Amino acid sequence: MGRPRIYSDEDAKKRKAESDKKYREKHREEINAKARRPENRAKTRKNSTKYRKKPLSKLKAKEYREKHREYIIAYRNNPENRKKAKEWRDRPENKKIRDERARMPEVKKIRNERARMPERRAKTRKYATKYRQDPKNRVGEKASLHRDAIRLKILQNYSKALSNSDIPCCNCCGQKSHVDFLAVDHIAGKKEMDSEPELVKLGYSSKLTSFRLRKFILENNFPKGFQILCTNCNFAKGMTKNNNECPMKGKKH
């Protein structure tokens, strides 16, 4: 006969857990130092990723989140925890890991698929609207002022270079009564400029529109190939019957 069992399985597990806890408290610094070693951190990340990918692990994680939803939200919104999370994210090594992961094709694919989900899009629009309407943020006003400043800078630069005017004006008819009447024009044509090697080398594409086009012009120090036209001249130039040339060309107001 073997020795009689003193403890049940449940009691034995509790005693072991208490013993492990005491050991961790006693040797906390040593355990943390060991865990912070690069090779151990890499090993932990690898095992964690492998574990999280298992269907059973995903199911358990989902059940846990649903069960403790209120606690998780309260924990994340706690100012101290938010501060700790920000400090952790701002560490150079963690930033590098996060950036590398974000560039992975499979991660990009998953992120794009999630972003296109109807409920996600509705949620994003809802929060974006709420954020913009908040008086503290004033995103709409700030963004509008930023866009207007960039646009004015471009109008002034090309007007000075092509029309020799300190005031933004149309390079065709000389219109300068208001900047809202003016627009950036592709001299050779939007799609035709796709075949200009110098612009393509800088990153030009006929798909660049609105703010992206203005950003391209500003970042590349106002490249050649663009001019300022008023709305009327720009529209008339685009008509086939005018052979892509404004009838007001050279006829100053």
In words, what does this structure look like?
It is a single chain. Among the domains are: 59-118, no CATH class; 146-242, no CATH class. Helix 10 (139-163) packs across helix 12. 64% of the residues lie in helices and 4% in strands. The mean pLDDT is 85. The protein has helices at residues 9-26, 28-35, 38-52, 55-67, 69-77, 79-90, 92-102, 105-115, 118-133, 139-163, 197-202, 210-219, 231-237, and strands spanning 182-186, 226-230. It has 13 helices and two strands, in the order ααααααααααβααβα. It is mainly alpha-helical and 253 residues long. A two-stranded antiparallel ribbon has the order 1-2.
Low-confidence stretches are none
Residues in helices, as a percent range:
55-70%
Order of helices and strands: HHHHHHHHHHEHHEH
Radius of gyration: 31 Å
Shape: elongated
Distance between the termini: 115 Å
What number is the mean pLDDT? 85
Strand order, biggest sheet?
Answer: 1-2
Strand fraction: under 5%
Q: Biggest sheet, in brief?
A: 2 strands, antiparallel
Task: Decide which structural class fits the backbone.
Answer: mainly alpha
Total strand count, please?
2
Number of helices: 13
